[in-house]
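Forwarding these from the shared drive since the link keeps breaking.
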Amino acid sequence: MNRFSSSIWRPLQIILHLSVQNEAPAGARFRVVDPALEGRTRNMSCCSIHERKAGPIHMPTSRAAKLEVALHWYAIKNDDDSRWRHNLALYAYLAPAKPEIYYFGKCDRTTVRGRAAYSAKTGAWDCINERSQTHRLIVAEVEVEQRLTRQLLADIESLLIYEIKPCCNVQNTRSRGQHCRPGMKVQCLGAWPLTRTTFRDEGQP
């Protein structure tokens, strides 16, 4: 067996990767991170050692295990409603009479009123106007037991779009991309138009 230099005996962080066949530990391999090697690692087996560049170590995480979100939806009926000025919120455009959602959106760098401009969402507005000349607007205030971030808001929006598939949304209707938060439960309250009110994030791709 090779004799290791004295530098190896500094405090090490060792991650054990086992390649066990027939439960035999003889094939065990170690990846040893030595602070003196400035990000390099040593791969060790029982008989050999060599250096290589360290790759990122991905640890399993659960960003939203048991995270519960309540969305309190309000109908916007006049221009004086204070919710037009919300700048971290969800909104939805509905059919004029029947319980149908045309489009889901979020505002995180502008206000609800800013997102209502035709120039902000030309494709969505063209789709909405093709279906009816009038529509209803609802805005959600988010209740959650942690800080509401832009990323969390995007994850909630993505879940609702993926599950409901509004006719005028394009993104997130088939794939969630990076906007998944497995374990999250979203409940819609208030002026919510649909029969289904609870949505759970099962980690869809």
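-- next protein --
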Amino acid sequence: MGNGQQARGDGRMNVYLATGILVLALLRVGDSIFVPLVVSLFIIALVWPIQAALQRFLPRLLALFITLSATIAIVLAVGSSVVWGFGRLGQWLFVNASRFQAIYVDWTQWLEERGELDRALEFLPDEAEIERRRQAGEGLTSPELCVLMAYAKLAVKADLATSGLADEPWFHRTLSDYFPQAIRDGYDGYLADHPLRREIIVNSVANSLVNRGGITFVFRATEETGADTETIAREFVVAREVFDLRGFVAAVEALDNVVPTEVQTRMYLRFRRLLDRTVRWWLQRRSGDVDVAAEIEHFSPAVGRIRAQLPELLHGRDAERLRRDTAALVEAGVPDELAQWCAGSLDLFAVLDIVEIADETGQDELSVARMYYAVSEQFGIEDTLTRVSRLPRMSRWDALARGAMRDDLYSAVESLARSVLSATDPEASVHERLTAWREANAPALHRANVALEGVREMETPGLAPLSVALRTLRGVARAGGAS
């Protein structure tokens, strides 16, 4: 008898232990899926006692009906949250699987140096296995990516938890957005005293950063700029708000089962490229703790105005490319406005430079935008950027060289636009100003056109010819400024 009871007790203990391990493993995959479930179970535990209270004043069946209705509403809400969470996780895995392979080794070594990852413990592939998979055309599996996504969030949260990010006044809205509308309406003034205020803010920012920026977003930004996690997170939030990333993502998510998944993926990837570039722009242009609220307030209006008028602001081949890409998205089922937003998203990156030029010269932002985009089209910058994006990314140094080349190209366009704006009559038209500037800088422009045409004739130009073309553009900007 005693042995039988002990055996049953051991069996129950094994079941409890296995269940506990399973629950912990599931929670590790993604809090966007399981946190709503835990919260809902807690709410349901509160709902049932309400039935007893209602029965004191109402018939038993009516009280039961009210309680069941409330429970069903909660279950439906939770089901929607869980489905949305799994969908977001699936989108992330699909978008990141191929591009993540190249920097897996560097990033996991970085986590191991921080003492936050044990690849053997997590059954993650080592360098030899990664190389074998690369040669075989294989990548990381979905379970491996899920584990790494969890570690990425844990690393970001650990850094932000000891930072001053949660004390930035702007992030009170992050805290407020965490709660239901009824709580915000009636008790917003009390939320600042919430005992988990810092944890809620840090969790929200870290989840948004990794979900939308990607597993290696912070690592890559640190490698390229030397910035710490708090600064990267601040600049990410600024970029997210200025360019309305959340509005864009919500609009794309609304197309589930309306357009093909591959179309949605292309839209996510295009906007992520904008996010990468804008965050690095802020990291390179701003030093120290950026004023999140001030930066958002300063840049957001210009982004909205220029986005609305982008088809009229672009010139020549750039305008034609915008029309072509917009039409392709509309044909795939994307609404007109969203299609144009997506097709012109990378063109909007220039707004950051446009605003700074307008601030320094005192000229109207739309006038500066017309000149900036005209200069970009004049020198075929879009084509050169496309060729830079095709450079190999076989190592960390390849990626850094590509990023530096792209940043330098944008800087060259900014310098050229400044040169034209400062050397020509502000009352003249864009065409008249460009013509006058070209005539004044004919020798330098001839050399630049020869170099750029040589690069265009190459099917796959490497870093060397592209560097020569970039140096030529800088020379034109210097010559124009001197004239």
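The chain has a mean pLDDT of 82. The chain has 23 helices and no strands.

- D.
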